[in-house]
Amino acid sequence: AMHRSQLQTWMVVYPSRFATESGALLQALSYGMATIASRLPPFREKEKQGACITFKDIKDLRRKIKDLLKDGDMRASLEEGAKKYASEHSWLKIAEKHVNLYNSVLG
What is the gyration radius of the CA atoms in the chain, in angstroms? Predict the structure, then answer.
């Protein structure tokens, strides 16, 4: 879990080389943090949903960090996207989807 002092940061950078998913990245999104992640399949899917942005190499990462530091609107948009993603993928929402699935199968 993140410590409260980490909430004073402006962004999270997640430079992973291999991942199928990341609890740390999901935690950052749940706190509404503007997040830059490696361009890996699970993170690209989140990028498509507006939850984060991805980078392809060090040069791209450097540029995106600078952009986020300069552009408050861009950062705010990512923060909102992160919050929205987290709320849409909460345990409560997942449980509701499972109950609906079971109910549809059982009739």
Answer: 16
Q: How does 7-36 read in b/e, with b if 16+ C-beta sit within 10 Å?
A: eeeebbbbeeeeeeebeebbebbbbbbbbb
CA 75 to chain centre: 13
| pLDDT, tens digit (0-9, with 9 covering 90-100), for 38-86 | 999 999 999 999 999 999 999 999 999 999 999 999 999 999 999 999 9
User: How long, in residues, is the chain?
Assistant: 107
**DSSP strand pairing (53-55 vs 12-14):** unpaired
- Quick one: CA torsion of 35, 39, 41, 42, rounded to 10 degrees? -20
Q: How buried is 50 (Cβ within 10 angstroms: 0-12 exposed, 13-18 middle, 19+ buried)?
A: middle
